[in-house]
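2024-03-11 09:14:02 DEBUG pipeline.ingest accepted 1 chain
2024-03-11 09:14:02 DEBUG pipeline.ingest length=255
2024-03-11 09:14:03 DEBUG pipeline.predict start
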Amino acid sequence: MEKTLLNIGFRNAVLNLALKTIKLRYKNSFLGIFWSMLNPLLFLLILTVVFKEINHIENFSLYALSGLIFWNFISASILQVLTSFIDNASILKSVNLHPFSFPLSAMFAAVINLLLTFIPFFVIMFFLNFQLNYSIIFVIPLIVVTAIFVLGFGMMLGTLNVFFRDIQLLWNTIIPAFFYFTPIAYTPDLVPESTRHLLKLNPFYYFVESFHDIFYRFKHPDGFNFLVCTVMAVVAFAIGYTLFTKYRKGFISNI
């Protein structure tokens, strides 16, 4: 793996694939990056109408939007990594390029898109009384840890998806359930104490709560939550890359 990442040709290929993905996403688009805000804003409108009066969360719009932005990043990037082998089947068959470049470039494209989304995101957040302070610097390590988790988890699913296409269909089916199982439109303390522990079985809980700490509570992420995120990222990447390494020789004959 180290030799692969240090190879200049490999790094250039990953960067070019990531930039190509970004360019194709907004090609011939008048609003460009602002489309990335449309989905969370529409969801915010729906959640505000449905949940605001029930939750009584102070500054509900800021709470929900900060969760939605990063939930979209996590869920969309997992899908992009998951489908990266299938989506690039023609390249994989015709060009001598290491297969790891596809999930890695998909992850880089997702991170670049998130950083671009920050431009309209911060404008809207300030209108919602977002308070900029030192805690904002913690978003950098948090995005890195989240990206590693997503890459590993997505690569694990993506490898299985090459051989069993039901994996993508199954993921598309269960991801909406994870959305409601994650405290985006509600705070954890609103869940009955007898069942609150079930929330913490959801791996996305720790990532979204850490982002809420920074963008809603205006403080650094909870130490325990960030530790859990880091451990899950290392474990997910280790499993994902091991599975990918073991079965990648069978990719070309199955895609």
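2024-03-11 09:14:41 DEBUG pipeline.report DSSP finds eleven helices and no strands in the chain.
2024-03-11 09:14:41 DEBUG pipeline.predict end
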